[in-house]
Design a protein that fits this description.
flat, 23 strands, 18 helices, 4 domains, alpha+beta, 46% helix
Length: 702
């Protein structure tokens, strides 16, 4: 076939080797030009032309451009040929999101079932071994008691029970029994072959363990009893050999012992079938040979050796009946020292789920079918509960599981329905609680506006108030009303109860005090006309309208209003005082409130007790008034019971502690005095909840 340029180009295009883009063509152009200049440089060197040396820089530059362009072309080729497209990426994403978690779930389920089945198989083997050990222990205790009785009576140490067991029970033909009175062996030791073992030196009571003695494993039990002046020690021993393990392996599978240097099964029972050739080789090595090999090659001692195998694994009953292989260590005690071995023998069990299932329900017989039906019914109920949980997850709390019987499963469904109804009730209660909390927040914001924010101080009196509710809103009350530049009304009170009702009554008192104080005499006369106590004394201050209502008359008005407008059990304690800056005189009336005190500079105190009982509880009351002269530096202190009544293990905080605290800090600003008092109360309360509202009203003459 004739060679032609178009044919060569078409073949290269089919194989994807022909440059199709500008970058690829430019790369080949640079490469070809670099090769041409390189050949030209070599020819110039051969012909010894001096100008040829200048071509080396161009060769390097063009080679760099060619390599860079080929890298770009190679990256594009990898992007188009190797990297996945968007559709493939989405498929892989769906695989990781949907398929992989499912596979992992199945793998975890299979692993869990496998581990459970393996542990159950190991449990069967260890339980059977310990059951044989308990049998040896029980009979050894009976033999020891019979022998002790005979020795106490001075009779010869023969055991009728042991002779009877050896004649009637095949198992006892393979067991050894030895006894010692003190350190003297008694003539009952040994079986038909006369096998003996050394007496234990570490046993002082009952003993029942798997032991190693001269390289072999035994089920061994010991009992120590007093016999005359010495102790009687009786030991029963049974070899843990292939025949015993074969009994355990029946209807279970294959059991293999890995001893790692312990010659298990070297002693076979009389009448036992010979083991396989491999097992005989594994068990024929003597302890001495094992020790020599272990000394010559320490690493070989760490490799576990299959001592013997008992039982076989039957064929699978179905496709899911896979073989299960699991192992467990067997705790062993060294007979010579009584210490626990660090390298315990390993028991490997090979079985199938069908065998474990038959062993699990072997005691039930035909009742196992009934158990399966019960489990099926439970699965149906669980499915109904699962569907009900899906309804609840979607927010449909009206769904109920139909109950058509009166058994335990029906009770479970009824409990679920009851739980759903309780959830609906809790949601409604939560919504109501949220609504109340929102209303409390609004009430707290409104009440915060009732307390004075910015207090206009008098030239001769500085004042400060503080209130901290025990709950969201407070029933305590304080206020400062500046009548004019020389006159101010001080108020402090405490409403009975807590919460919203107390806060509403506090707001009523706040509004009434401000209204009566600002409007003055006209409101007073109107209130008296509608039924207030006409006999109250009205002490009128001269010259300034709006300050004419005396504290006692104002308390009488408030008492009548609260008595008429509130329930019978509602009342309040209230202190009202009018301070006249021109004369430094405080005129006051106390309506059942804790008596405020005036702390003089010399430390003496005066209690403001003039007044009457609480307001709002009885009608037609009059309130006495008192007058106190304040000197510069005197401190007026009013407080609520939330300050003095908190308790701890030492009793109440108390008024004396409060007065001493204010007296010690009398020179500090009123704000700092308040902080000292509240901090002391908090320390007194400790981690307990604040029992009541804390309110402080402080004033200092200057």
């Amino acid at each position: 076939m004739a060679f032609s340029y178009p044919a060569l180009r078409d073949k290269l295009k089919q194989r994807g080797l022909w440059p199709m883009t500008r970058v690829s063509r430019f790369a080949w152009y640079c490469l070809g030009l670099a090769v041409f200049l390189f050949v030209l440089q070599q020819l110039s060197r051969t012909l010894k032309i001096s100008r040829g040396e200048n071509l080396g820089g161009w060769v390097s530059f063009l080679s760099f451009l060619a390599i860079f362009c080929f890298c770009v072309v190679g990256f594009r080729w990898l992007k188009n040929k190797i990297l996945w497209r968007l559709r493939n990426r989405l498929i892989v994403t769906y695989m990781f999101i949907g398929v992989i978690p499912t596979l992992l779930l199945f793998a975890m389920t299979f692993a869990t079932i496998y581990l459970f089945a393996g542990q159950f198989a190991n449990f069967i083997v260890t339980s059977e071994i310990h059951l044989h050990l308990q049998n040896v222990e029980a009979l050894n205790s009976a033999i020891a008691n019979e022998l002790a009785i005979r020795l106490q009576r001075g009779e010869p140490p023969t055991i009728a029970l042991l002779d009877s067991l050896r004649k009637t029970d095949v198992i006892w033909r393979h067991r050894d029994v030895c006894a010692w009175q003190g350190t003297k062996p008694l003539p009952i030791c040994g079986d038909a072959k006369g096998t003996t073992f050394t007496p234990p030196t570490f046993i002082h009571g009952s003993f029942s363990e798997i032991v190693r003695d001269h390289g072999n494993l035994y089920l061994r039990a010991a009992t120590v009893l007093p016999a005359r002046t010495e102790t009687l020690t009786v030991v029963s021993s049974e070899a843990l050999d292939q025949e015993l393990v074969q009994e355990i392996a029946n209807n279970l599978g294959e059991i293999t012992f890995y001893a790692g240097g312990i010659a298990l099964g070297s002693q076979s029972r009389p009448g036992a079938e010979p083991a396989s050739q491999a097992n005989q080789k594994a068990s024929s090595s003597s302890p001495g040979t094992r020790e020599e090999n272990r000394a010559s090659n320490p690493d070989e001692a760490e490799v576990p050796h299959a001592t013997f195998t008992a039982g076989t694994v039957p064929p699978a009953e179905n496709m899911f009946d896979h073989q299960i292989t699991f192992g467990t260590p067997l705790p062993v005690v060294e007979w010579e020292t009584g210490t626990r071995e660090q390298r315990s023998p390993l028991v490997r069990v090979q079985t199938r789920p069908s065998l474990l299932y038959s062993r699990l329900f072997a005691a039930l017989g035909d009742f196992a079918k009934g158990v399966e039906l019960i489990l099926l019914a439970i699965a149906i109920v669980v499915a109904q509960i699962y569907r009900a949980t899906q309804h609840i997850d979607r927010g449909d709390f009206s769904h109920r599981i139909p109950v058509k019987s009166s058994d335990q499963l029906a009770l479970l469904a009824s409990s679920f329905n009851s739980m759903t109804a309780s959830i609906v009730k809790l949601i409604l209660e939560q919504k109501e609680k949220q609504r109340l909390e929102n209303e409390l927040v609004i009430a707290q914001e409104v009440q915060a506006q009732l307390f004075p924010k910015e207090i206009s101080q008098l030239e001769s009196l500085e004042v400060h108030g503080f209130c901290r509710p025990a709950r969201t809103v407070s029933g305590d009350y304080y206020d400062f009303l500046k009548v004019n530049r020389d006159r101010m009304i001080l108020a402090a009170g405490d409403v009975s109860g807590k919460g919203i009702s107390a806060a509403l009554l506090m707001a009523t008192i706040h509004s009434a005090v401000r209204a009566y104080s600002i409007e003055g005499m006209p409101i007073l006369r109107e209130a008296v006309a509608v039924g207030a106590a006409a006999g109250n004394a009205m002490m009128l201050a001269s010259g300034i309208e709006g300050a004419e209502v005396s504290p006692g008359a104002l308390l009488a008005l408030l008492n009548h209003q609260l008595y008429e407008s509130t329930p019978q059990e509602k009342y309040a304690t209230l202190f009202l005082g009018t301070y006249d800056g021109s004369s430094r005189r405080l005129t006051y009336s106390n309506g059942g409130h804790l008596p405020p005190v005036i702390i003089s500079q010399d430390g003496s105190i005066r209690r403001l007790e003039a007044g009457g009982t609480v307001v709002g509880l009885f009608d037609n009351l009059s309130f006495d008034e008192g007058t106190e002269q304040l000197k510069p530096g005197d401190i007026f202190l009013a407080y609520s019971d939330g300050v003095t009544e908190p308790e701890n293990d030492f009793g109440e905080f108390g008024e004396p502690r409060l007065i001493d605290l204010v007296r010690e800090n009398r020179s500090r600003p009123l704000v700092e005095i308040t902080e000292q008092v509240t901090a002391a109360v908090d320390d007194w309360i400790g981690d307990q909840e604040q029992p009541d509202d804390i309110t402080l009203v402080l004033a200092r003459a200057r």
